[in-house]
Amino acid sequence: MSSTIWSVDDHLEDILAAIRPLDPIELHLADAQGCVLVEDVTVPVALPPFDNSSMDGYAVRVADVQGATEEFPAVLTVVGDIAAGGAEPPAVGPGEAARIMTGAPLPPGAEAVVPVEWTDGGTGGGAATAMLPAGSEPAAAGGEVRIHRPAAAGAHVRERGSDVGAGDLALARGTVLGPPQIGLLAAIGRGAVRVRPRPRVVVLSTGSELVQPGEALGEGRIYDSNSFALAAAARDAGAIAYRVGAVTDDAAILRATIEDQLVRADLVVTTGGVSVGAYDVVKEALSDVGETEGDGAGGEDGSPSGLGTGSGSGSGVDFRTLAMQPGKPQGFGTIGPDHTPLLALPGNPVSSYVSFELFVRPAIRTLMGMPDVHRPRVRARLKADAPLRSPERRRQFLRGTYDPDAGAVTPVGGTGSHLVAALAHADCLIVVPEADTSLEPGADVEVVLLG
């Protein structure tokens, strides 16, 4: 374990310096949500590809409906139906109209669309409220229609290329693909795109005292909440998360478990077992990785169970003391033949989650090639009944609720790193700098937004 006291910023910088974005791959649209484009995507054909109607109504010539009113309607001969995706539309000549549905192509000769509400719908009565169904009233595609209002050229017509034109840039490289972007790619005919994939993150808790939710809770046992919280946080960050669950306090079992998981991991996250206790199994299992050459018990590289490669700060996993609260003990390194990054977080629930937000989330988003890997930060006025105390020379992260309208933040719960109920009601972290041991109510503070 390193004897150096690391700052929060230096620890994060060391992590991100050792992590590179994942190699790009080709993915089908259904699998590309949340990924980052690595190529510019241009439009192969105009969108929409043809002039089409934005309303259910009648395709007409402008001259035929000029001056039309309810008292003196324009009476036009209906020459047929035009449905979206239908057959070749009929041409519209002088004195004629065609029933047209939303999205259907504007027929030859037509210059505008009159909404059905501006007509009698072909019934010979008053203003219509809807089209007569084609199946039940096939005669509605013929006969006459009375139009009660004029229409200008291009009225209720979506012109070809009015969304994007052929050759236009649809999406630039670096774009994160959300639902609207996926929809645009589908609309221009792209079935697959080249992206950086979502990283696979393996999450496991350590501790013989841990019981899975739903099981009986014996004497001296607690439920494993960390692996669930961190797996959810990894998915929220954009990763594919695999929750392994709890591993007992046995170094050999932990090493074997991690080794088994490396085949599906771009990043491994452990929680618990990184402090200075006699049963801190993560530190015991991984702190000597890469340092056992010649003992006959390791892999080809001399590391236990074949684990161990270099990290930015040396071989194996480096266990550190950070000048922060909560989350003082941390571990970071790379393991296995593919130099898979591993972040070892403390076991207290609040410490674990705060550490994830500060260190693991940026690592995940760096693997994804995200343009911004950090949570947004704002300044806010501290709303509290009493001064907030903080240990000297440590950066403290307090849970809080942020009111954007008032520009204020209110602490939630106490400073204890076990207060998971308070964490569940927080939507931000209040940052108390290392140089401050007290913050007065009304102070201007930095806030990390979690939502």
Please describe what this structure looks like.
The structure is a single chain. The protein has 451 residues and is of the alpha/beta class. It is built from eight helices and 31 strands. The strands form nine sheets. The protein has a seven-stranded mixed β-sheet, with helices on both faces. The chain has a five-stranded mixed β-sheet with strand order 9-6-8-7-10. The radius of gyration is 32 Å and the shape is elongated.
- Which strands sit side by side, in order, in the main sheet? 1-21-23-24-18-14-17
Percent helix: 10-25%
Mean of the pLDDT scores? Answer: 88
**Which word captures the global form?**
elongated
Given as residue ranges, the uncertain stretches (5+ residues, pLDDT < 50) are 290-315
Quick structural summary:
The protein is an alpha/beta fold and 451 residues long.
Spell out the key features of this protein.
single chain; 451 residues; alpha/beta; 7-stranded mixed sheet; 5-stranded mixed sheet; 31 strands; 17% helix
Q: How does the SSE layout of this entry go?
A:
Layout lengths: L4 E2 L1 H10 L7 E4 L7 E2 L3 E2 L9 E2 L3 E4 L1 H4 L8 E9 L13 E5 L11 E4 L28 E4 L9 E2 L10 E3 L7 H9 L4 E5 L3 E7 L3 E2 L10 E2 L2 H12 L2 E8 L3 H11 L5 E5 L9 H6 L23 E2 L2 E2 L1 E6 L1 E2 L3 E7 L4 E6 L3 H19 L9 E6 L5 E2 L5 E9 L4 E4 L8 H5 L3 E5 L5 E2 L4 E6 L2
